Input
Amino acid sequence: MGFWEVTLSLLEGLEYTCLIFALTLVLALPLGLVISFGSMSKFKPLAYVVKTFVWIIRGVPLMLQVIIFFYVPGFLFGTPVLSRFASVVAAFVINYACYFSEIYRGGIESISKGQYEAGYVLGLTKSQIFRKIILKQVIQRIVPPMSNEIITLIKDTALANCIIVCEIIKQAKELAATRALVWPLFYTGVFYLVFVGFLTIVLGRVEKKLSYFRS
Output
């Protein structure tokens, strides 16, 4: 099996890697914001429940969460509730939403109360203050830590192969098992490096564009 054939085979796996990455970002970013509001809620029982949930999700390895999402419903109901791919996406979305929620919370709480008070003096409502004054500053402050999590997400997609979802690492392992080719497994590193390099450039430009809030 030649270099080009191996590359094409790994690209098939890369499609699943990119799909897991994209779906996780699209779903986890807004969900993380909702969770952060829950953890900051003035209604203490809600805040306690949300904080406990975030603590559990952040404390349990992501691989174990993927396994739980796929196998546990099957044990409980006698049949799998989610497909392998859906289980991976669900586990990733909830896991990363919890991490994102802490980043959001840190960004929101870092804004001084004086800015809220100034907004009230100008006659703005609470929602207007958040949208027009707070949100832009929060986004600028959370871009660096959010960038780190996004880059980590790319590499974490490899955990999908623990329940036999054919992302790029699983594809390389199949080549090793069926064609006795070990080098494709190392070759996958090139795909990850290119992916990470591209995102580093994009996220760096985003951070630079938002630098107008820096003093």
Notes: Residues 111 and 134 are 7 Å apart (CA to CA).
